[in-house]
Model the fold of this input.
Amino acid sequence: MLSTQDTAIIPHEWYNVVPDLPRQLPPPVDRDEKNSSIQLLNRILPKTILKQEFTFQRYTKIPEEVQEIYAQIGRPTPLFRANGLEKALDYKGKILVKYEGATITGSHKINTAIPQAFYTRDEGSTGVVTETGAGQWGTATTVAASMAGITSKIFMVKVSFNQKPLRKNIMELYGGEIVPSPSTETEFGRQVLAKAPDHPGTLGIAISEAVEYALEKDLKYMLGSVFNSVLTHQSVIGLESEKQLEILGEEPDVMIGCVGGGSNFGGFVFPLMKKFKEAKIFASTASEVPKFTKGEYKYDYVDTAKILPSIKMYTLGSDFVPEKIYAGGLRYHGAAPSISMLVNSGKIKSSDVTESSVIDALKLFARSQGIVAAPESGHAIATAIEYARANGNSRETILVNVSGHGLLDMSIFQR
Done:
């Protein structure tokens, strides 16, 4: 295993995939001429984030302060060979794991929360607001805001708020204010509750509430996934992996990650795609939210209230209400435009995984490797296990991104 103290592995620049896509990324589209959602982004996002969102520059320097905090929060995260899992599966090749659960918040989300919070502080704003599904993004936001000396408010999807009380507790420990969504704190939330008082909530609704609240209170909105600037920040995962693979003398034949909005997946595979062009790539999603297999590749709204721009992506519809699966981070109706484009072109394959398969995969991974992975990450592990079993005599090297730990998600095993 590589030492997490080897800070030389932490990249000094983020990688932006846009210049290397097979064709130009379709631009976001406004709702109508009178209500510019693009101008709205100017109001709620830090100027630096907005610049990074629309840049065609391939590399962007990571501020020294952010690099220092990356080291403080546990970067680089380890990349290791999963010998126990290989043995359990009788797999003749190699299974490598990039483990994002080693950060202080237990997931990859902190990689983008840190720069967003510090850009917000540096531009003079006193606080941030955002949404969260399973709670990993909310946790990362509250930590980053605390480090930056600003306030944070989190609209948490109600089904996850009820399923995961410890997530709420840890966000409050870091100084965050947590609200179950849909809520009575926004006009849109009240509209949803008037029609369905027991609505379980969705990420689309929570995004709408967070954006509305940010506009009303003159706060900055934190982007959790989907947008290109977020995937750019998450490129530290793939850039670290590239250096670690070089040290180990390994080249992946297969790369696997889970997809909710797409930030951990894009951050993981995009830098590696540039080098390992022949590798097979699988995006693992929840079968209950089959955006790539049953969704459409078209322009659709990021949020349910249609406040934010419409972007071209694979989507099940901004009004889609998913089942109450435990992997709250995968319940989003769409996926990042860059990932959607590559799925549409056939470069990235999709793999739908059921919750029962995820539970089995999490158990096997825990018993063979000792790591309790997050339910979202369990989808990637399940896809890797399925691939290894189908190709048991292969000598291929499988690289899987385990995007977080599941130590606060143990009740999934009681269901």
Notes: The two ends are 34 Å apart (CA to CA). The CA atoms of residues 66 and 77 lie 16 Å apart. Residues 375-390 form the longest helix (16 residues). The mean pLDDT is 92.
